[in-house]
Amino acid sequence: MRKSKLSLILLSAIIASSALFGACKPNKPADNPDAGKPAVKADPFGKYDPAITQTSIRIKTSWMVLDEGDDEDNNVWSRAVKEHLGIELKQLWTAPDWGSPFDEKVNIAITTDNLPDNIPVYTTLFFRLVENKRAADLTKIFDEYASDKVKAMAQLNGGVSLKSSTFDGKLYGIGSPPSNDGRTFLWLRKDWMDKLDLQAPKNLDDLFAIAKAFATKDPNGNGKQDEIGLPLTKNFFGGPADVRNIFNAYHLYPRTWMEKDGKLMRTDTDPAMKTVLNKLAELYKDGVISKEFTIKDPNKDLEADYVAGRVGIAFGGANHVASPSLKGAFEKDGAIWEAYDMPTVDGKTINAQFESRVGNFLAASHKNKNPEAVIKMLNFQFEVDAFNPKYVKDNTFNMSPKNNMNFWCKPSFGIDEPNKGAVDAKAVFEALNKKDPSGLKMSQKETYDKIMKFNEDPAKANPDLWSNGQMYKAGGSVEMWLSDKYKDAKWISPAWGPETDAWVQNGQDLHTKVQEHWIKAITTGKVDEEFDNFLNYWKTQGGAEATTQINEWYSKNK
Ligand SMILES: [Ca+2]
Questions:
Q1: Closest CA to 77 of 291, 355, 378
Q2: For residue 179, what is the DSSP state?
Q3: What is the pTM of this model?
């Protein structure tokens, strides 16, 4: 990357002077008493002596209670950065919630140029900081001071962390990339499959045949046709039966932007979507999709249907078997859930769909005399989050022994290693295979212990132990999740940039409109007509403008 070359050329003069002069001032080697001396290597974990002060800001809601005697300026995190980095971390102010109180305070601080040294903010606020020239240039500082862990995080998802924080070639912050390690599996009730003599689905038609058998052959054995074949909700996404998997099985990625012929296009306007809508309309007509899906509560009602033993198909992550719906069905209806590879339209491996837009950013004030301290605190936070034994002896950085949520006091709140889930699962899975938990972190050891307990007597296991046992058994969802065939099976939206004005204005409405149009298409079967209606709405109600604007951005930021 260009910053690496630049920093090599400018190394000696700049390292020595950056701590003395604010980042806003030009570096003038002639004024620098250290100029000409050998460069001191930047230490990502070096302790300031004497200690320096860094101010910050944080959200502090009424329910973010700390142990008695602790407060926002004196807590497990502030004491640790003092001890290990020589940084006195002081909160300039707190806000009682995300959104309006926090945003207003940051906006005022931007206007009056009265920002803290360490600035953890989210999207719009970060862009405003940069526009108003309140953020320190971290280009060289990041290169020199960011730890390997922080740099690895910054490379995820095509380097979106730094790309999103770079303006005119200069780095003004660090973004937390969205996670891309999750993966949705097809979950089926194995007890129903066995009862109806059904085999694991090899292709999509097999899956739809299973759904039809579940809906029509009374697998719950109550003599009534009360089962739901393919669960669907009026929200389509989220909840125990996220339908995204069906679209992804056709290599379609709804509700985001994709590249077509070198330009960005809203995926929902792709006529290929009609293939899936036609299939869903057919399943609705055949009674495989419940006629009540448009009126039921997407979460509460569907969960009740699972628990009551009326649903045998679910879509969710490797841990979905531990969700209230699936675990509840085990507990109340004896459901045995197994994870399966989701079949696809052409037999190719399914790609998991991920967004690329960064939500949370960390910046340093342009007035911060030690902008590298912001990076050092982030380095430290990543070590603690990885349970580095040099800094971490117990779980108190997360939860106090009195069960208070200490993690709210993280100096760079919102910036996290996004793919912790797979890292934890892999550690536990490998420890189980080796029968050696000695290398596990505390939270991982808890999971390990549950599975060992489950293995002692699976027949007597409670639902919590059972669901963990299902996940971690040989050939279970965790092993599938970590398998090589899924390593690169990801689809990441190319639209990593900020939202456009047109989208801010009309995006929510267009989003809602997609749902309305899908519901109409599925329930009436008039897919072509409804799709054209939607396209017309899209073109005239802000969608065309949003497409033009995002492509203006894309042409400069591909
Ligand atoms: Ca029945």
A1: 378
A2: P
A3: 0.82
